[in-house]
Design a protein that fits this description.
The protein contains 14 helices and no strands. The protein is globular and about 55 Å long.
Length: 417
């Protein structure tokens, strides 16, 4: 009797190194039972186990989405009167349609005399609000729907690239961040609120892309543009994370022997940037010379309305970042001190950052010892995002209001969980 051919050996160095290129060309989670060598159906007993894991993943995601579901049930069909920043945001959402001289080409207006980088958040909420009659209530519902989309997208991407073992921690981060920011964010329309869950999604996308998933680079780019457009405080962290993912993708493709410069990899993200970043900025410069981009650069260089205000500095930035990495941080119910007159957060000793350094070091060391390149990448990703966050916080001028860096909570929870 002739022996069956030996199966092709596979490397165990990175079980999810190329999550978008499993056999058959379909996205499958890492704990998905493989087909038999003969191509027959999976043995009996494996499918029920996978169904159980899928059911648990859905249940965990549903729990994370429960506050948003309650908010939707509360808002639909009921009047909503926005005030303050929410009223201005709702007004600009209504200016999107029909296209004309009032259509937003920048983001929300800032008290510093400039607007946030881009209009994508306005455009998305306007498209969703149009389905509900373009009322203030429809705008509020649209914002909640976007938050639901961020959490659901996170859960789906985690499932198809890592199965239940990846869904649990990433959905837990989304749930913890939502709880830390409080349910009030679901009762107003405001650009800093809706951006935070998308930052968690961005971290997961970057991790997956860097492992060798070129066709997910477009989705990563869309989310990156949305975050930067929503709030200027995301510019440096998002740029650092996106760049880290692209560098990791190039390295992974080269190690796999794939051609790096493929049109299908780079043209779609370039089109996204062109249509959602370059075109609105150019039209804004033509409409209101020299344009909002110039105002943002002036502000970053200290030449804007806030140029006379003091810069927080590296020590102050590290102190604010350390708050989220204490032994019992605010996102785990720990104390969150605030200044009595401004409400700005009070920093902690930068020495607390050693906890995060130890955690990331342990993840990196475990990955190296176990041949888990995905863990090594995860440690590198979070370290990169943390460094970029520290730079961003150090550059804050004036009062460091908490809404300027809600991503800090997501980053702390990502490191801790």
């Amino acid at each position: 009797m002739s022996r069956a051919p030996a199966p092709t050996p596979t490397s165990s160095a990175d079980p999810v190194a190329h999550p978008d290129r499993p056999a058959g060309g379909q996205d499958l989670p890492a704990d998905h039972p493989p087909p038999s060598p003969s191509g027959d159906a999976r043995p009996a007993g494996q499918a029920p186990g996978r169904r159980w894991r899928a059911g648990l993943a859905v249940a965990v995601t549903a729990v994370a989405l429960l506050p948003a579901a309650v908010a939707l049930a509360r808002h639909v069909g009921r009047p909503f009167t926005p005030v303050g920043d929410s009223a201005l945001f709702d007004l600009r959402v209504h200016d999107v349609w029909p296209p004309g001289p009032l259509t937003p080409l920048t983001g929300a207006y800032s008290r510093m005399g400039w607007s946030h980088p881009g209009p994508l958040l306005y455009w998305l909420e306007a498209a969703l609000a149009a389905l509900g009659g373009r009322s203030p209530t429809a705008t509020l519902v649209a914002q909640v729907v976007l938050e639901v989309l961020a959490v659901a997208w996170t859960a789906r991407l985690a499932w198809v690239t890592g199965g239940l073992r990846r869904v649990l921690p990433w959905v837990a981060v989304q749930a913890v961040v939502a709880a830390a920011l409080g349910p009030e964010r679901l009762l107003v329309v405001w650009n800093p609120d809706v951006a935070t869950p998308f930052f968690v999604l961005l971290l997961l996308q970057a991790w997956v892309v860097a492992g060798g998933a070129p066709r997910r680079l477009t989705g990563l780019t869309v989310v990156a543009v949305l975050l930067v457009d929503a709030h200027v405080g995301y510019v440096v962290p998002v740029a650092a994370v996106w760049t880290w993912a692209v560098v990791g993708l190039v390295r992974s493709e080269r190690r796999a022997g794939n051609r790096v410069l493929r049109a299908t990899t780079w043209i779609p993200p370039a089109v996204v940037v062109g249509l959602l970043v370059v075109v609105p900025a150019a039209l804004d410069a033509l409409r209101r010379p020299p344009g909002n981009l110039v105002a943002l650069v002036d502000a970053a260089l200290g030449r804007g309305a806030s140029g006379h205000e003091a810069v927080l500095g590296l020590h102050g930035g590290l102190a604010l970042l350390a708050v989220e990495l204490r032994w019992r941080p605010p996102w785990l119910g720990g104390p969150d001190a605030a200044q009595p007159f401004t409400g700005a957060p009070v920093g902690a000793s930068p020495a607390w950052l050693l906890i995060g350094a130890v955690i990331l070091g342990a993840v990196w060391w475990t990955g190296r010892r176990a041949g888990r390149a995905d863990l090594v990448r995860l440690a590198g990703l979070l370290a990169t995002a943390s460094a970029a966050g520290a730079v961003t916080l150090a550059a804050v001028r004036g009062t460091p209001f908490e809404y300027l860096f809600y991503w800090r909570v997501a980053l702390g929870a990502g490191v801790g969980i």
